[in-house]
Amino acid sequence: MTNPSLSRPARLTPGARVAVVAPSGPVPGERLDAGLDILRGWDLEPVVMPHVRETHPRLDYLAGTDEARARDLTEAWCDPSVSAVICARGGYGVQRMVDLVDWAAMRAAGPKVFVGYSDVTALHEAFAVRMGLATLHGPMVGAVTFLKDARTQASLRATLFEPESVRTFQGLPGARTMVPGRASGVTFGGCLALLAAGIGTPHARRSARGGLLLLEDVGEEDYRIDRMLTQLLRAGWLTGVAGVVLGSWAECGPYERVRAVLLDRLGDLGVPVVEEFGFGHGDTALTMPLGVPAVLDADARTLTLQVPALL
Fewer CB within 10 Å, N- or C-terminus of the chain? Predict the structure, then answer.
């Protein structure tokens, strides 16, 4: 099987230390502080890594230098007192630092919970391919959705502390069946732009075969979504995918235009597809486990994990 089930880390318990890293863009301080307060309210002990509050000296869309961001992630992961690593925000920058991370040292340190989405998709792929580790496509500490949306907070909290309570994901009220059917496979995916950009890079996943693909994006016009999906199709990357779960397409223009592209590019794959499921950059961001075997029922608009996301 091209996309096997991955090792799952242990759930969190009250008092756990959680490291916060910024592998991509700079984080507004007030948003970071508000997110840290939410984690403390869950009886977690957040530890902000040294370079999280920095901005690159020349490229102000990056949170610190590539080397500093990679070092923060490596050191957080290798700290035996840390049980989870949560990203502060997305933006852009993971592709610049992912190959600077000490993956050998992190493999030796063992599994931990890892949370993020958007640009962090490149790290989810790296954890899957380089470490064989399941991760959580979930809200980040400084993200507005995490700070303001109760359902987003509840989804992450339940997954972290009581993962057996969130085995079945029901699409949000706007979810619809795009292509009917039922399929099983291992969940993976994230931001379309990052998945397309990863093709041909070192240690990239070579195929979606056998997997349940989660896709979403933000700020991409319909023709650009078309371009990225077409790239995946032309590369043969989507051949053999078991099913597709589509999340939010915030700031991508009128949804019916986006939907026309998604249906045109994905509708002929011959696999179940459900749309507007409720993860990604929307007003609510459900925490979606990656690397876990699941069953997609597009007619019922449900995704059911065969095992809990965390041990």
Answer: N
